[in-house]
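Suppose you are handed only these lines of text.
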Amino acid sequence: MDKNIVVETKDLTKKYNGTTVVDQLNLHIYENEIFGILGPNGAGKTTTILMLLGLTEPTAGTATVAGHNPTREPLQVKRIVGYMPEKVGFYDSLTPRENLKFIAELNNIPYHTIDAKIDEILKAVGLSKQADQRVGTFSRGMKQRLGIADALIKEPKVVILDEPTAGLDPEGINQILDLIASLPKRGTTVALSSHQLYQVQRVCHSIAIFSRGKVVVAGSLDDLGRKALAEGHYRIEVEVAQASPGLADILAKVKGVSKVETKDNLLIVSADSDLRAELARTVVHANVPLVQMKIQEFSLDAIYMKYFQEKG
Ligand SMILES: Nc1ncnc2c1ncn2[C@@H]1O[C@H](COP(=O)(O)OP(=O)(O)OP(=O)(O)O)[C@@H](O)[C@H]1O
Ligand SMILES: [Mg+2]
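From them, the structure of the protein bound to adenosine-5'-triphosphate can be written out as follows.
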């Protein structure tokens, strides 16, 4: 499958007063994926986001967002990128509807479509009831929801969300995660930073873990799990109907298999690729009834903790 890169950085670097806070970063975000940016406080996530948006200038290196250089072409980038900052700010005397109308007009959204778009996005973020209430009276979570509506009203090609669920109640979190998950289908690529590992695991296709201005590991959850927790191996669990002496030796001879461990009816196969089809064929060929087979799943929590315990 050919995938287009929508956001790319090359040796992107930011120093503040001589201190490097983003260090020769090379990121790739593909079209219509949801990309999670993780890492401890101060790791450089927000600084990276600000450089992608042209809101702060890199000290060295370059960024490209949908074909544009944010430093040299900030207006083009702002036109196609939606952004929800870490701290959202609005005109307090306006209502959500008025705030969104203002943003929509600023972005040249066709006038006759604006009202319907506003109703739709307010519903998606759970603010329909408060559509005409002054934003100055809003709770933190309500402002956060409006921030997301703000970033999405122009149906951007790319949306960058800095901690989108911070301050939301559990129902709000679910609603916003569902909304984020629906964006690639509508042609919007998402980059989000978060400390909520479970939420990142739920919606992100790719993840980069930042530490001290560098990406320490990046890839799909499976890639990360294999790198951090399985010495780069695929672990495949093969469950058979009853313990079958000799099967472990047979599986160990399959090309690409490095180790087979046996626990009663379960054989845990370490391999250098996803050999499920080949293993299934081999089990059946050995006349052993196969109950099920699955590839080991990783929890982002375990991956993250492993990184920061060992390398933090
Ligand atoms: N305007 C600034 N001037 C000087 N130092 C800054 C500035 N902005 C950020 N920094 C420093 O850069 C480093 C990275 O900050 P950044 O805000 O990018 O971290 P972050 O990963 O977003 O953290 P958090 O998880 O807390 O949001 C920190 O050490 C911070 O103090
Ligand atoms: Mg931040």
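What can we learn from it? The two ends are 36 Å apart (CA to CA). Residues 14 and 59 are 5 Å apart (CA to CA).
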